[in-house]
Write a structure and sequence with these properties.
The chain has 241 residues and is α/β, with parallel strands linked by helices. The protein contains eleven helices and seven strands. β4, α6 (146-157) and β5 form a beta-alpha-beta unit.
């Protein structure tokens, strides 16, 4: 834990955009209150020459096969964090699920593959970052995406529970209001729901969300729909703590 000086918050997201889409209002509120805030994203590695389902995840966003999709997304995330006023983001060199043997949309939302054991890799990268944070934020894994589930399980396994807050994953929380958190969250009795008032920070969140240009059509149906969607999802900044 930190001593004298500004308190620190570390937000751990599975994908580039998850922390901002889900808890951007909270992150901005912390910055405004004088906290030092940093976002860490777990699965951001570029994979040369993607094929099959992995390639389709960029083709369906209008990006050609010759584009380094993850490099583009990392740059978007840096701009989003600049707009929120957080510190320079950390991008861990782990590949997204489509590059780890999950070859269909159904597989992405199924159980983690037995051979997809990222416990050691996540621990290696996250433990030194988590050590001194006064507050740790991460996903509840609503929607059951395998990368979200693995991130949530890693955070719960690291012994940070007294300083852990879990956000409602967007856009899943909006698309499926009855979606339930990962079973590891439901089995943690110490977690209770807390609502964070982010009313005064929604404009900053909208501006940060707009930085993820590659995702706006796929996730929101276009840039013009972002302000309404962000305001409708404001409860997504509620956390379990």
């Amino acid at each position: 834990m930190t001593g004298a000086g500004p308190r620190t918050a570390l937000a751990v997201g599975p994908h580039l955009d998850d922390a901002v889409f889900s808890a951007g209002g909270t992150l901005r509120a912390l910055v405004a209150a004088g906290w030092r805030v940093r976002v860490v994203t777990c699965f951001t590695a570029s994979v040369p020459d993607p094929t099959g389902f992995a390639l389709s995840t960029q083709l369906d966003k209008g990006l050609g096969a010759d584009i380094d999709y993850m490099a583009l997304r990392r740059a978007e995330d840096q701009e989003a964090q600049r707009r929120l006023g957080t510190r320079r983001p950390v991008h861990l060199p782990l590949p997204e699920a489509p590059h780890r043997g999950y070859h269909s949309p159904a597989a992405l939302f199924g159980d983690p593959l037995p051979e997809d054991d990222l416990t050691h890799a996540l621990a290696t990268h996250l433990r030194p970052l988590l050590r001194d944070a006064d507050l740790v934020l991460g996903p509840q894994a609503l929607g059951a995406h395998v990368d979200h589930r693995l991130t949530t399980r890693a955070l719960l396994a690291f012994g940070v529970l007294p300083r852990l807050a879990l956000w409602r994953d967007a856009p899943y929380a909006v698309r499926c209001p009855d979606a339930r958190p990962d079973g590891t969250v439901r089995g943690t009795a110490a977690l209770t729901e807390v609502s964070v008032d982010v009313t005064g920070h929604l404009t900053a969140k909208v501006n940060a969300v707009l930085a993820y240009a590659t995702q706006l059509g796929f996730q929101f149906g276009g840039e013009e729909n972002v302000p309404g969607a962000v305001r409708a999802a404001a409860r997504g900044d509620a956390v379990a703590a």
